[in-house]
Amino acid sequence: SLILAIETSCDETSVAVVEDGRIIRSNIISSQIETHKKFGGVVPEVASRQHVESITWIIEEAVEKAGIRLQDVDAVAVTQGPGLVGSLLVGLVAGKALAFSLGLPLIAVHHIAGHIYANRFVQELEYPSLALVVSGGHTELVVLEGPGQFRIIGRTRDDAVGEAYDKVARALGLPYPGGPHLDRLALAADGAVQLPRAWLEPDSYDFSFSGLKSAVLAALNTARMKGLDLAADHVARGFQDSVIDVVTEKAMRAAKQFGAKQLLLAGGVAANKGLRESLTERCRQSRLPLVVPPLELCTDNAAMIAAAAHLKWERGEFAPMTLKAEAVLSLEEWSVKS
Ligand code: ATP
Ligand code: MG
Ligand code: FE
Question: Is 262 touching ligand 1 by the criterion CB < 6 Å?
Fold first, then answer.
């Protein structure tokens, strides 16, 4: 099958053509980072306008790069949510128009299912498996009971990991999005500021990062008042160590409890070098196979949306033309029918 997928949930406009849910024929990603940088974050109105400006040529480019004709496509997939409604809407309308004019089925995709199934491009997935989702808006431990069957066993109670990275990076004066800059600073650091770890209740798989973020801001303020200068790389290292300790430990514990055959890393923060190293080491010790998407498939892209859409394609679960964009959407409810 050839699935054409569209992703516009935040500030990347992306269109991909994927064969059989695992061969990427094209994956065009147009990032709006340069636009949003001057505001220090994504401005929804601006994002939505820019999606409108680029969606048509990105669809054309994805089709051309894939070496196919639009008539060769078997289904059109779109990200339905979660995300910014004004942004989602642009992709949704484009997807509906394509599906309608070509007489093709429309497939609605959950953005986080996409992040998780980015791992399908690396290797065949085995079940049950455990996904550690760490992105700009989500931090979750998800048990995959079967293909496309999701059960969330833990989630953040406040900030998402990516969000915490971006906020701490901003306090350190790093450019938006700060995650990759903070990662680089932390890895090169020759020392670390000691910061707290939020383990929550002993048996909980939930997370909390707002306390850590506040601790960083308090340390920076205290130092400033005393006229001292906290080395930014020491702050970055302390912050990154705290995040990695907690997410790695909880993921390993959950993988064991739920009998996971693989640990899947997913979401934009999956690009984090420190996190990849820590999980690689722990999984090696526990003889647990670790699957990590290549860097370009960690952050938002449409290929991952096509990979998740393939689960629904196989079962003929299609969306009606009345499909609506959803800012909030349940991953568990999006699961394929068993
Ligand atoms: P969601 O997927 O939850 O809707 P999103 O789509 O906005 O959120 P992603 O594109 O998945 O988020 O990921 C972007 C986030 O990943 C940003 O917060 C960014 O700072 C972070 N990120 C990217 N690379 C790194 C890195 N190397 N280290 C830490 N964080 C990173
Ligand atoms: Mg983004
Ligand atoms: Fe994302």
Answer: no
Copy the structure tokens of residue 98.
């394509």
Of ligand 1's listed atoms, the one at least distance from the Cα of 163 is 18
With a 6 A CB cut-off, is 114 part of the ligand 1 pocket? no
CA distance 219 to 162: 20
Instruction: Quote the ligand 3 centre to 219 CA distance (angstroms).
Output: 30
Q: Among the residues of 142-231, which ranges form H helices?
A: 161-171, 179-188, 210-225
Q: How far apart are CA 33 and CA 130, in angstroms?
A: 31
Tell me the pLDDT tens digit for each residue of 59-105: 999 999 999 999 999 999 999 999 999 999 999 999 999 999 999 99
CB 205 within 8 A of CB 251: no
Counts of helices then strands in the chain (DSSP H, E): 11, 10
The ipTM (two decimal places) reads 0.98
Contact 114, 304 (CB under 8 A): yes
Query: Mind listing the pLDDT tens digit for each residue in 310-319?
Result: 999 999 999 9
318 CA distance to ligand 3 centroid (A)?
A: 23
Does any ligand 1 atom lie closer than 6 A to the CB of residue 299? Answer: yes
From the list 150, 120, 111, 166, the residue with the least C-alpha distance to 327 is 111
> Locate tokens 């409604």: which residue?
85
Alpha carbon distance 283, 99 (integer Å)? 42
Angle between helix axes 179-188 and 161-171 (nearest 10 degrees) is 70
Q: Is 205 in the pocket of ligand 1 (CB under 6 A)?
A: no
Per-residue pLDDT band at 111 (split at 50, 70, 90): very high
The one-letter amino acid at 257: Q
d(CA 165, CA 176): 10
- The closest-lying atom of ligand 1 relative to the alpha carbon of residue 298 is 11
**pTM across the whole model:** 0.97
Q: Is the peptide bond before 177 cis (omega within 30 degrees of 0)?
A: yes
**How many CB atoms within 10 Å of residue 235?**
24
